[in-house]
Amino acid sequence: MITFFYKVALKGEYTMDLRNCTKCGRVFSYNGIPICSRCNNTDEEDFKKVKEYLYDNPGASVIEVAEETEVTEKQILKYLREGRIEIRDENNMFLDCERCGKPIKSGRFCDGCVMEMRKEFGSVLKANRPQSEKTAVKQSNNKMHTVEIRKKLK
To answer: What sign does the dihedral 115-116-121-122 (CA atoms) show?
Structure first.
């Protein structure tokens, strides 16, 4: 299958991003989700089946849920990675943190790595903040201002 990415220019400056669905291959208007609306609706129906089964059968294994709901194990693992469902049993953690490898119940990262990444991202944002504010002040000198803003700039 050949994958296409199109940028279709419509009247004005608006462009429509057309892509192929990663599941079925149909061309659709991309809105941040890599699957078309039809496949997305099917995915949501599958998630509802899994959610309802787990509500009625808490603690069921992935294999059991897959057999009973006819949803693939791969799809159930995707729901776990997205954090939409979670493993209850402490001894049944077969997902690993993508950063450090610790066993986790759901999502992509363990709580420790999430905290570390927040600190790292926060420090990067703080380091870049003063430079962007200086740039904004220099750029704003070329625009019209009210009297109060003009006094602040001087």
So the answer is: positive
